[in-house]
Amino acid sequence: LALNRCEDAKHSYQTAWDLATQNATAQPELAAFKSDAGVALARFYRDSGANEDALWLLQQVVTAARNAGDTPQQIWALAEIGRAQRELGDLTQAQQTYQETLALLRNQLPNAVDTEAELLTDLAKVLRSNNDAATAVLRLEEAALLVSGNDYPQQRTATLVELARAYGDQKQYSDALQSYNEALMLVRSASGWRDRAAQETEILLGMGAIYAAQLQFADGIQSYEAAQALASSSGNLLLQGEAYDQLGRLYRDSQQYGPALNSFQKALPIAQRLIQSNVGCALPVAGSWSATIYKNMGKVYQALNQLDKALTAYETARTLAKQQDNTALDQEMAAAVSNVYRLQGRHDEALALAQELGDFELEDKILNEMGRLMRDAGQLDLALEPYEQALERAREV
Predict the structure, then answer these.
(1) Helix extents (H) in 88-151
(2) Which of 19, 41, 95, 341 is the most buried (most CB within 10 A)?
(3) Nearest to 304 by CA among 257, 344, 261
(4) Best CA proximity match to 223, nearest among 180, 164, 255, 165
(5) pLDDT tens digits, residue range 249-305?
(6) Is residue 102 predicted with pLDDT exceeding 90?
(7) Spatial CA neighbour of 128 closest among 67, 169, 70
(8) H or E element in which residue 220 lies
(9) Angle (deg, nearest 10), helices 113-129 and 133-146
(10) Which alpha helices (DSSP H) does 235-379 contain, by range?
(11) Is 375 helix (H, G, I), strand (E, B) or coil?
């Protein structure tokens, strides 16, 4: 895995699982090894997006661990099942899995507070995905209390970061920043954490998002710039690209269009490189990332009234969205293209695209604008047609 030789890694995990499965009956001491191999292979499947394969394998591990009376391994595998279910969007089942796992842990391993905090934190992610941030906050506050001492700094950091996100969902911005700051202090004071730079970068990105939500642009820019510098120095292209992307959005929202374009133009080649090369053996970067950057560049060009460049950016975004079968983004970009056509005075093209989309609001805007332009030009007879079409469309809606 460390060498990104994904197929070799998969083959090794599969071989270990097969050998342990074949020999576990004759050699009972291999039962624990079989479970370890199964969870490792399942994690590989889950990280590469093959969640259905991961679920099937994890069910085998749970059964084997239960039969062997290996409660820690059973809990470990159940937690992985919950994560796979969440990533598949089966939130109800994931929530039930975590609740059952917590009950098992509290009954059998009541002193494993770090594991309990981890399960509560994962449960909160499911709750947030299900738009229940209020309950997520309660579970995370419970988890934070469990690891409030100095014995579990990494789990406390993970819990505090998720708590900050849940507070952000609830618009409790001061609480969110307090949680992020505490997590940041823990990370910066830590030693020997392999992924410390990535954790600090993610915290800074989260803080930037909280500042952006409050329209505190200067503080948000400072956080994103710090995140970008750290990601750059640590060689983490994924987080570096995300930092540039978020910087571009914040500059755009604060109407600093030059820096916004500069940031998007730096994010774009990083996104393209990661999409083409994949990111290690993990799930590939979303192919629509480049399309989203082009979309945001189009918005900046449109704000600058550089309509030709805006049109090119929107059309590129739409092409990429089609390639990724991203229907929502494709339709959003089609509407953006239609609107640029309207602004350029290409009303027939704008109207045809709006009608193709079934965008009644945009269609009404175009028809009324066409009627107004014809009226102002003294073409009163011609002006009647778009007005009548707009009226007919309004009656249909």
Answers:
(1) 91-108, 113-129, 133-146
(2) 41
(3) 257
(4) 180
(5) 999 999 999 999 999 999 999 998 887 765 555 555 667 899 999 999 999 999 999
(6) yes
(7) 169
(8) helix 217-234
(9) 170
(10) 237-253, 257-277, 289-303, 307-323, 327-343, 347-357, 360-376
(11) helix
